[in-house]
Amino acid sequence: MKVIEGLGQFEQPDFSVVTIGTFDGVHIGHQTILDQLTHVAEENNGKSILITFWPHPRFVLSGDSGALKLLSTFDEKTELLAALGLDYIIKIPFTPEFSNLSAADFIKRILVNFIKTKHLFIGYDHHFGNNREGDIHFLKKLATIYDYQVEEIPRQDIDDIGVSSTKIRDYLLNGEVQLANVLLGRSYSIEGKVVHGDKLGRVIGYPTANIEIEEGYKLLPADGVYAVHVIVRDERLRGMCNIGFKPTFEGEKRTIEVHLFQFDEDIYDLPLKIEFVQLLRKEMKFHSVDELKSQLNMDKQNAINILS
Questions:
Q1: CA dihedral in degrees (22, 117, 145, 106; nearest 10)?
Q2: pLDDT confidence of 8, banded at 50, 70, 90?
Q3: 167-187 pLDDT, tens per residue?
Q4: Is 245:254 a contact under the CB 8 Å cutoff?
């Protein structure tokens, strides 16, 4: 799969099958649409193409962009889409100037001249262009002029996608990662770099890797302790992850820490991926370090049982 940055160099396929959207999380609803997209492309010896915008339009147009949390970073989304067999992502920079582009110009400049669209999948409620003037009816009206076919994604499918995205976010914010994983079709994950922490875990016999996530817009599950799989240096390990403020130690900053089972290597500054399997418990404040250690022993055994 190739990612085309902006509207620069692009070798137009003879038959471009296109859809438009953010596809945040690339969950099972999105996967259904992409299956149809790639199938039509294969049938016509063409290429499947997703037009997406970055930054997310709400980051640019909303006065409270910090409130928006996404299920996937752009790099994570790219990796997921590549695994599904998509041929191209057209990554268009979303700016205030671009938001003023009319629907007619969007169709002519991008869909027709730049991509040479022959088959377009679009949702019944999708709007585009300045003041959201473009919709499926507008696309169909210009289809005969520009020689492309419009296929409407059924309302039920679009509604399911919207409901699924909302449910996934709600499940994660409640710590219900198992339910979120069902709708994602995989384990929800976060990626970051291992950084130096206060090393309190090492003092109590549970050394942890402290994870720093660069993308502040990435949604984190609820505070608590989770059974997790961890990928570091292409090795898949078992462990447990704590998200929260470490109230037993009067922590003031929300942190992400992961304790890896049967692992004691230096992994500072390395990238690390955490896949959430199940919530073990919500974060708690303990009366003593000994009480915390006793609970961590139980957490570890529970995690081992779950991950086995």
A1: 40
A2: confident
A3: 999 999 999 999 999 999 999
A4: yes
